[in-house]
Design a protein that fits this description.
globular, single chain, about 0% strand, about 110 residues, mainly alpha
Length: about 110
């Protein structure tokens, strides 16, 4: 997705997808494997195409699957982090980039 203004909801989701994946230190393959294991079969190539703006649409099913993979509400895939200490609830072993809250390790 090119730098500058976000023109579509799908572009916003693609940017957020990449940002969340990178924040967690996940590879594109790890995300593809996670989505597939959660019932949304996808490939590394399909995700890369979305992140790079070569694919410009996101389905509602994908939006919900992406949000579930990251443990956030689907709205946060479009509108970004809600943090405000710490609605984004970082996963175990990770910290919120906004407030520093760490996810509890079970």
């Amino acid at each position: 997705v090119s730098a500058g203004r976000v023109n579509t909801l799908s572009e916003a989701v693609a940017r957020r997808l990449r940002s969340l994946r990178q924040q967690r230190g996940w590879t594109v393959q790890h995300l593809a494997d996670t989505l597939t294991a959660n019932g949304m079969p996808t490939t590394r190539v399909a995700l890369s195409s979305l992140e790079l703006g070569k694919r410009v649409t996101v389905t509602v099913d994908e939006l919900y699957a992406f949000a579930a993979a990251f443990g956030i509400h689907p709205d946060q895939m479009v509108n970004g982090p809600a943090c405000q200490v710490c609605s984004d609830a970082p996963p175990p072993g990770f910290a919120c980039l906004n407030c520093g809250t760490t996810g509890a390790i079970p």
